[in-house]
Design a protein that fits this description.
The structure is a homotetramer. Chain A contains 10 helices and no strands. Chain A has about 220 residues and is mostly helical. Chain A has 2 domains: about 45 residues, Arc Repressor Mutant, subunit A (Orthogonal Bundle), CATH 1.10.10; about 130 residues, Tetracycline Repressor, domain 2 (Orthogonal Bundle). In chain A, helix 3 packs across helix 4. The structure holds a DNA duplex (21 and 21 nucleotides).
Chain lengths: ~220, ~220, ~220, ~220
DNA sequence: GATGAATGAGCTTTCATTCAT
DNA sequence: CATGAATGAAAGCTCATTCAT
């Protein structure tokens, strides 16, 4: 038995163990920072508190992260990874049922479920944290990917699919964000609002099937 | 009598001058703070910099504002005042032409023009500044007023006007905000996007004229 | 009637009037400062507040007083004047009845009544205000005068009258001060305490009539 | 086993060393603050100066003390601890010789020796520092303890022991304070003054052995 | 003389980061 | 590698004092 175990073990178990420990430390730090952010907002995030909550020394934090921003980067990474996973999953489903109602349903459902997971953290990350240009670019990258996929799915159904995809994606994102961010101020349950959003997007896409993008309409006419 | 009146008259101008000077200082402070906010974001806003940019001493800043937050309050005030002015103007126009296209046109046009005036400041104020509960309540108040007016205008045309008003107002706000905040990432000119938004909202409202609010639709069906 | 009024007026009524107004301003400033001191303690005393409470501008305060300390000086002056008045009055009484009980009675009664007039101000002045050496010297001067007079009165009755006077004056001052400063923590009414103090001082003075000053007694013998 | 123990042993000293270093920093801060207070009075006490005098950075000051007041608390603590130690020691002595002269001797000797250790600091602490209610309560607590013990010791000898204890304790405290605080203005050596104080307190206590507390005597009779 | 707007040195406190142990 | 004591730049704010009007 020891032999077989040894045969499965990597060549340098010590380093593995070290790496595993290191990874655990990194995870603890990122998790602690995410918790603080969710609970106390951007203003409550400071490196000494992160270290304490993660159960490590402040020195160790700087052993693994060059500065505070890098920790936020890591949080953002995890956040975006979940978004990308949802995106991949949605893309698969789209291959099965590429009709308009399905596209809209996946879009609305996807954003709502994305925002439902730790809404407080999401809120802080998207409307309080002063993200660096780099960080902002990464968020925009995910948005671009989503628009790309939705545009491809819309292509058989509507003209100017990229423009329409941008509109529906941004709308679905913004509204589901708003609902989860301040739950008060909603005139109906979130489910009803989601259904209305679905209806709006579908009505729009059905309306523009063969049309060119609308020419600008001056507001006061 | 005229002579004696004339001899006493100068007093007023002196006080006026004093008040004018004080008002100029207050304005300079608020203006400087708004500039810093627009240029450098929330993190760049500090009282010493405000004083320097306003060309006054730090003491003068605290002569007119009890603390840093009060300066932000003043900026927010000015901001909300413009919103309220637009709202009042829009409400007037609605009385003249209360049809659906006019409602949507005013909504989209109003938000676009609101965001066009110093979009960077708007961006910081709405997505980076840690507003106090009071400040947040005031912003929400303006939003509620807009929804109220739109709902009243929609009442003759659609069922459940409050729900629909909330949806279209939030959508118009969020999208026009997005366009002006990061101008890159738009697949078409802002005017085209606005026209598309207009089309989406109109399609939605025409679609739901007599309908009840949609029942929830599970995303993957 | 106007004539008689004029005949009583000084030669330069304008200057008188000015001086009177100036004196009123000075008084208002000192009075305001004393009130603030009594109500809010040393930490609450600042020149802008003094000006506001006195109903004059901060500029006027500096017209009459070179700096903040001078205002405190003036308060102290008024305070010491009352002490000196009491002292003069007490000295007169001593000439009538120069026996031991009368001396002690005047001493205790004098300090109690001195402290009874605005005890809060007295408290701040004597135990919170960082008096300048000059100010401190003036307070000490009054104390020295009192000791001088008491020593003279005690001279026919006891040996080493100056030493004894110092002891009884300091004791009477310290205790009556304590009673009025923190009224809680007293085991009996102030009147009873005063009578006990009287008894203590009298017992001491009767005890030392012909004695030399006590030789030092090591504490633990 | 000894070998392995020895190899692990060094760890402790390291932590010890760290704690010792931290303790040294704390001590340096408190010591520096006490010096500043003694030399320059309350007005000279500021956190930057404390840090400089302690030879540490301002950050270290706030590493160990939550705010400026906590440093004063620490100074007060040390001060009161010495007082409490003297009190405990005096209480023991009283059990051996509970006669009146011993009580008075311990009282006078105790206060004199308490005040002899850094009289300037004592002066600032007791008559310039704006103590918080908490701090004031602690000072009063020590005074109450002393009165309690003296009252118990006096009980076999005099009536109304609590009233008499209050009087003698406050007198001993106030006078020894005065002598050490401004050494000038004393007509005789401190030792002579202490002996006189002793005589006064003893005369009083002998005088009131079986008496009720004196009825109030109007000052001018 | 009177006014009060303006000044700025100086205070308390925070927190990202470093480095001796 | 881990620790946590130490650092110090920088922030918010106060208040005695000055000076143009």
């Amino acid at each position: 038995m020891p032999a077989s175990t040894a045969s499965k073990a990597p060549r340098r178990p010590v380093r593995r163990a070290r790496q595993a420990r290191a990874q655990a430390t990194v995870d603890a730090i990122v998790e602690a920072a995410a918790q603080i952010l969710a609970e106390g907002g951007w203003g409550a995030l400071n490196t000494n508190l992160i270290a304490r909550r993660a159960g490590v020394s402040i020195g160790s934090v700087y052993e693994y992260f060059p500065n505070k921003g890098a920790i936020v980067d890591a949080i953002l990474d995890a956040h975006l990874s979940r978004g990308e996973a949802l995106l991949a999953q949605g893309a698969l489903r789209l291959q099965e049922r590429p009709d308009l109602p399905a596209i809209v349903g996946l879009l609305v459902g996807g954003f709502v479920s994305l925002h439902q997971d730790d809404p407080r953290l999401h809120r802080v990350l998207s409307s309080e944290a002063p993200l660096s240009p780099d960080q902002r670019a990464r968020v925009e990258g995910l948005r671009a990917s989503i628009i790309q996929i939705v545009a491809a799915a819309l292509a058989p159904h509507v003209e100017a699919p990229h423009i329409r995809a941008t509109l529906v994606v941004d709308t679905a994102e913004a509204l589901s964000h708003r609902w989860l961010v301040d739950e008060a101020g909603l005139p109906a349950s979130e489910a009803v609002m989601a259904a209305e959003l679905h209806r709006m997007l579908e009505a729009y896409l059905l309306d523009v099937r063969g049309a060119n993008p609308a020419r600008p309409i001056p507001p006061s006419s």
